[in-house]
Amino acid sequence: MTRERALILVALFAILGAVAWSVRPNEVTAEGRVDRITSELRCVTCQGLSVKDSLAPSARQMRDIVAQRVAEGRTDEEIRAEFRASYGDWVFLSPSATSWAGLMWLVPLVAFAAGLAVALARIRSAAPSVAAPPAHEVAALRERVAREEALDLPQTDGAE
Q1: What pTM was estimated for this model as a whole?
Q2: Per-residue pLDDT tens for 12-26?
Q3: d(C-alpha 109, C-alpha 24), whole Å
């Protein structure tokens, strides 16, 4: 086995090990759930920060509500639905891909595809298209080449 193949195998096993390690089941604590949910919610006072990162009193109240709902045993989706009902989709820092706000995720992709199409169209139009010449022009060129080759041939009349 060559050294390159051995390195490839080691890298492949390292990648497989990392994937296996990342998908292992792990217990999520109540505090971990509170942190995850509050990092998704927008502070209503600061608006640019998550509830988890904000020091505003309203953010503290929202964190307390999330902690209380987690302690009551509600699911993450139930807690998100409660905040969605109170504040609308605006309260989430990243909009849902299934709502109207999800169009925000599509606009860059559509713009990229349109730019790529325009670039390809310009490249194709800038490249000269080479069409085959008509048959009568090809025949005329062949005759001309034959005549010029006949003129360039050395004259052999045995005088050497």
Answers
A1: 0.49
A2: 999 998 888 887 777
A3: 33
